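Section 4.2 – Deliverable D4.2 (structural model, holo form)

The reporting period included a commitment to supply a predicted holo structure for the target in complex with fe (ii) ion. Inputs used:
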Amino acid sequence: MAPLLLRSAVTRAEQRSFAAHGHVRLPGLWERALAERIAAEGRERRAVAEIPRRGPRTPVTARRLPRRGTPAASGPLLARVHLSLTGTARALTGRLVVPTFAAYGYYQDDDEVFLHIDTEQCDLTLLTTVFGDVGPLHVHPRLIGSTMERLGELESDPGWDRCGGTRVTYPRTGVTALNGHVLPHHRPRRPAPGLHAVAALCYRSLF
Ligand SMILES: [Fe+2]
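Output (structure tokens):
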């Protein structure tokens, strides 16, 4: 099978940026043609998407409307991309990471994500835009070390500044790497008519 990736190496600058900030954009990892195939698979797999039973659950109070949950689905092409990016993930983190799960996540009409950290299955999370227009994640280095309960309190507080944090976008022909188990992140509610999808590819560190 032909290799999927244009490059798996990362630069020193990308390594340093990830180490310093907990996130870095890695654009241009694959051709536009592969991005289109991923988008096609993502659209096709929507029909079998389900709301995952496991995953981060931010404990919010009744003041915040509970979200429906984000339907997710896997796919054979996404699984190949996930595996192919293992070398990139190791080079970026300098850790022996292994793929855990990869999924398309679908957002219909709004793309809100509550403030959370990723599960222990995601020492490294790679995010790519699949189709549509999902807004940037806001990452919160000042909240590193907060419990999920504390993140839930903030999410439930109408006075919490939902526009705060550093905005992080994700390319279509590559990924944004996120230290998602450490770095709290959220996406503020905004109207997003139609269907949109991102893919998250997670890796766990063996040591
Ligand atoms: Fe996350």
